[in-house]
Design brief:
By secondary structure, the chain is mainly α. It is built from six helices and two strands; from the N terminus they run αααβααβα. It has a two-stranded antiparallel sheet with strand order 1-2. Keywords: Membrane, Transmembrane, Transmembrane helix.
Length: 185
């Protein structure tokens, strides 16, 4: 949640995605701790919590694929503030005449934005634009993928909650004397 304000340019869709991820992960972790005595429910909450740990990795993979798609389409642009460009280009704003004019006039560069083509086949700033364009979509898609995958896994392995392995996954209300462990022969 700390990086949400600035990740991938700090677009509002990115911020919302990162905040949602942080809130969900915190909520699932707290629920997992609250249900620690009920192993069945605890397992469900901790699987959901663990599934969200991989969202950032999936997000990066989606961005890699989407960058090429956006490049092939060719009509996507990302907005960059002139002060960001000043930092990224190390003070060389010659490729961005409106930023250069604003700098010479003494205007606040944080209020002027420039559209930069999103492409993986041009300069590094264009690659960064492609990442910016795709990041909002990617975090939401990754979040949905991991949430759905966790729920599918929980339902597919529900039978594991019905088998006793020691005392770890005993059903609530099942006493050890009702189902004694098989003796070793």
């Amino acid at each position: 949640m700390i990086v949400a304000r600035h990740a991938f340019g700090g677009e509002i869709s990115d911020q919302a995605g990162f905040y949602c991820l942080g809130i969900l992960q915190s909520s699932f972790g707290v629920q997992g701790l609250r249900t620690v005595r009920d192993t069945r429910r605890h397992r469900h909450w901790m699987l959901r919590f663990s599934a969200l740990l991989g969202v950032i990795i999936t997000l990066r993979l989606i961005i890699l694929c989407a960058n090429e798609i956006v490049t092939d389409i060719g009509s996507y642009y990302a907005l960059w503030k002139c002060d960001e460009l000043l930092f990224v280009t190390r003070g060389n704003l010659t490729a961005y005449p409106s930023c250069l004019a604003a700098q010479k006039a003494g205007d606040n560069l944080a209020h002027l934005q420039v559209a930069i083509h999103a492409s993986t086949r041009e300069a590094r700033i264009n690659l960064a634009s492609a990442r910016r364009v795709n990041s909002g979509m990617a975090i939401w898609v990754a979040l949905v993928i991991h949430m759905v995958a966790a729920e599918i896994y929980i339902r597919a392995t529900e039978g594991a909650n019905q088998h006793r392995l020691g005392f770890i996954l005993a059903r609530p209300g099942m006493l050890p004397e009702e189902h004694p462990e098989p003796s070793d022969r």
